[in-house]
């Protein structure tokens, strides 16, 4: 690519100068906007916050064929955004020209617009950024002896000199919006602004495993992703190794021209929000409704309600099939044939997931080291396993252990006796409320009871959820939720978003019965969880609670939203529908339910029980 910058022909942009040659047509009020003001207006569109600066600068570095891009941030980007690359750099002339509006090296003619291979092309970003900040550009073209450094304030060049510099470009943007206080006011806390930056870096870095990215904040390295050929390595560096273990490579090509490569999360990896779906069209990150809908459609039968998959997908198609030039910052595209693209995505994703479903049952062990795509079985989601089965298994394992050492240790024998007595006493406490009688279980999902003369149906899942919820709420009321240490603390490696939520809400987690330590960087150790929830998938639990706390935000108080958080937690602990329960378990459920407000709903608002009076039943049979 030829990297000399020139001014775009006017067909590409609003043509202020053209107006200038028709003077005094009427006694007109129209006047030409000063260049700087025009840039500031453009900045209104392109530069929303520090994260947008970061995105534009990284895209320029990518376009300059850099394979090393370092991003240094201070104070959430309000004090400094610096992007350093080892790309092609700029000659002296280009260095000056690139701060001019509509100066770009990337598009020369209308035809070029349809076959874009670069991230940027409008020639708007640098002048727009420069107009609302203090910008220092240091650049040296590979073949030049020396580099150039240009310093501009609010878009006006104040200083320019030749300097010694390595090939490549450094753009430093300080004091963003220093000259537009109205916009500066809208910036959020440093942490929030930084998390937007980290998200943008993640999106871009996922799409280019061949580029070494490093992101620092206030001098600390926050994210580092070394050059790799494989998307898998990049995804695991950015999204966490735990996550990557359950990702399944996908690759497909349609006769109609669409192609897809990427990684699909197993259904067990599901999240409570859609923001773990990273999609790209022709190399650009998009948040497109058609694409998103198609993916969710493919996963639909495999995920519970309100659960969303994890995915990193690159969809490519010939440029004439899609318009990526819809809006400079909105992540939307326009497909020429939406239905066709939608079907391609849904079919490909669904087929791939189904293949694994079969492979997964055959080969449950996990071996992503053997990199053939089909050798990636999905790990069964522990939560989908029968709850009781797990408890029984661990009890059996416990008793077995006890048996093996029993002969030599009288103490262990006592422990075993203790455990046994515990379950006995649990049985004896299951006293049904007055006038209640258990009839049985229907479809492994509903309990049937007689209460006085009424026929009562109880949704066992909803009931369990309600009970857990009330228990947590009561514990929280008296002080804080009873917690229990994990035998093996869980080391969680999370992505930047979760890291920032966890850090912000560590005290709230503590109130909720968790003990979580920041381990440094994006690692955390979970040492204890609420007692009620020791048996559940800890990782998923912590992530879901984090997502919920994130909704509350940084300023919001936990108390106002406590019900929502508790209901998410309760949801984890509970027996699912479709589970055979023993007589004793059913009775215990009814007893527990009776201890709380009997007529209530599950925390999601679904009814827990329905009553049919004798009269209702008799009416069925035309007896009244
Ligand atoms: P666009 O990217 O749309 O062309 P920009 O305002 O972002 O517009 O950049 C203007 C021009 O400056 C680019 O076309 C490119 O030629 C040059 N440029 C910007 N950043 C870099 C960089 N990091 N390395 C080399 N050239 C750059
Ligand atoms: Mg650009």
How do the strands and helices of this protein lay out in sequence?
Blueprint: E1 6-7, H1 16-20, H2 35-46, H3 50-63, E2 68-74, E3 80-85, H4 92-97, E4 103-104, H5 110-114, H6 125-131, E5 134-140, E6 147-153, E7 156-163, E8 168-174, H7 181-184, H8 190-207, E9 212-217, E10 220-225, H9 231-239, H10 241-245, E11 247-253, E12 259-265, E13 277-281, E14 284-286, H11 289-299, E15 311-316, E16 322-323, E17 334-335, H12 338-362, H13 387-406, H14 410-429, E18 436-442, E19 446-451, E20 454-459, H15 460-478, E21 483-493, H16 496-504, H17 506-511, E22 515-520, E23 523-530, H18 538-552, H19 562-573, H20 583-595, E24 609-612, H21 614-620
Parallel strand pairs: 2-9, 13-15
Antiparallel strand pairs: 1-4, 2-3, 3-8, 5-6, 5-8, 6-7, 9-10, 11-12, 12-15, 13-14, 16-17, 18-19, 19-20, 20-24, 21-23, 22-23
Bound molecules: adenosine-5'-diphosphate and magnesium ion.
Give me the count of strands. Answer: 24
The description of the largest β-sheet is:
8 strands, mixed
Query: Do you know the CATH topology of the largest domain?
Result: Ribosomal Protein S8, Chain: A, domain 1
Number of folding domains? 4
Helix content: 25-40%
Structure overview:
With 624 residues, the chain is α+β, with helices and mostly antiparallel strands. It has four domains: 1-27, no CATH class; 35-220, Histidine kinase-like ATPase, C-terminal domain (Heat Shock Protein 90, 2-Layer Sandwich); 231-353, 2-Layer Sandwich (Ribosomal Protein S5, domain 2), CATH 3.30.230.10; 424-611, Ribosomal Protein S8, Chain: A, domain 1, CATH 3.30.1370. The chain contains 21 helices and 24 strands. It has an eight-stranded mixed β-sheet with strand order 7-6-5-8-3-2-9-10. It has a five-stranded mixed β-sheet with strand order 11-12-15-13-14, with helices on both faces. Adenosine-5'-diphosphate binds next to helix 3, strand 4 and helix 6.
């Amino acid at each position: 690519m030829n990297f000399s910058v020139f001014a775009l022909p006017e067909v590409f942009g609003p043509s202020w100068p053209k107006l200038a040659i028709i003077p005094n047509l009427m006694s007109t009020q129209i006047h030409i906007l000063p260049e700087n003001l025009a840039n500031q207006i453009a900045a209104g569109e392109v530069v929303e916050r520090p994260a947008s600066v970061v995105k534009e600068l990284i895209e320029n570095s990518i376009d300059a064929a850099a394979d090393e891009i370092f991003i240094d941030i201070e104070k959430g980007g309000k004090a400094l955004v610096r992007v350093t690359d080892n790309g092609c750099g700029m000659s002296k002339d280009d260095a000056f020209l690139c701060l001019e509006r509509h100066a770009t090296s990337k598009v020369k003619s209308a035809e070029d617009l349809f076959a874009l291979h670069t991230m940027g092309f409008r020639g708007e970003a640098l002048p727009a950024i420069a107009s609302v900040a203090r910008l220092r550009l240091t650049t040296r073209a590979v073949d030049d002896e020396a580099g150039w450094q240009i310093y501009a304030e609010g878009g006006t060049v104040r200083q320019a000199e030749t300097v010694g510099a390595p090939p490549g470009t450094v753009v430093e943007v300080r004091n963003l919006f220093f000259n537009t206080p109205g916009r500066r006011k809208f910036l959020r806390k440093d942490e929030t602004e930084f998390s937007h930056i980290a998200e943008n870096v993640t999106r871009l870095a996922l799409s280019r495993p061949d580029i070494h990215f490093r992101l620092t904040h206030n001098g600390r390295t926050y994210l580092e992703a070394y050059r790799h050929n494989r998307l898998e390595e990049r995804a695991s560096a950015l999204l966490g190794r735990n996550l990557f273990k359950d990702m399944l490579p996908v690759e497909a090509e349609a006769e109609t021209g669409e192609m897809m490569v990427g990684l699909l999360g197993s259904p067990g990896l599901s999240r409570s929000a859609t923001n773990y779906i990273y999609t790209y069209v022709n190399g650009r990150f998009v948040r497109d409704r058609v694409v998103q809908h198609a993916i969710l459609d493919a996963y639909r039968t495999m995920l519970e309600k309100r659960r969303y998959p994890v995915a990193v997908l690159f969809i490519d198609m010939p440029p004439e099939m899609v318009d990526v030039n819809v809006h400079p910052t909105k992540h939307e595209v326009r497909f020429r044939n939406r239905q066709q693209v939608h079907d391609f995505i849904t079919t490909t994703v669904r087929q791939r997931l189904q293949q694994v479903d079969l492979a997964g049952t055959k080969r449950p062990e996990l071996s992503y080291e053997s990199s053939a795509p089909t050798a990636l079985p999905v790990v069964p989601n522990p939560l989908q396993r029968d709850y009781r089965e797990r408890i029984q298994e661990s009890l059996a394992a416990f008793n077995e252990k006890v048996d093996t050492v029993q002969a030599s240790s009288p103490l262990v024998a006592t422990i075993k006796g203790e455990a046994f007595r515990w379950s006995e006493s649990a049985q004896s406490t299951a006293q049904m409320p007055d006038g209640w009688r258990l009839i049985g279980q229907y479809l492994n999902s509903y309990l049937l009871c007689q209460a006085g003369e009424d026929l009562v149906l109880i949704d066992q899942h909803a009931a369990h959820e309600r009970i857990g919820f009330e228990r947590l709420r009561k514990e929280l009321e008296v002080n804080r939720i009873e917690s229990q240490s994990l035998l093996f603390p869980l080391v969680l490696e999370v992505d930047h978003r979760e890291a920032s939520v966890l850090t912000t809400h560590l005290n709230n987690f503590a109130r909720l019965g968790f003990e979580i330590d920041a381990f440094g960087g994006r690692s955390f150790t979970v040492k204890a969880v609420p007692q009620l929830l020791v048996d559940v998938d800890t990782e998923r639990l912590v992530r879901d609670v984090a997502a919920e706390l994130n909704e509350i935000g940084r300023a919001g108080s936990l108390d106002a939203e406590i019900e929502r958080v508790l209901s998410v937690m309760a949801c984890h602990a509970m027996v699912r529908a479709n589970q055979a329960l023993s007589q004793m378990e059913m009775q215990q459920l009814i007893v527990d339910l009776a201890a709380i407000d009997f007529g209530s709903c599950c925390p999601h608002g679904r009814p827990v029980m329905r009553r049919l009076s004798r009269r209702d039943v008799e009416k069925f049979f035309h007896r009244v």
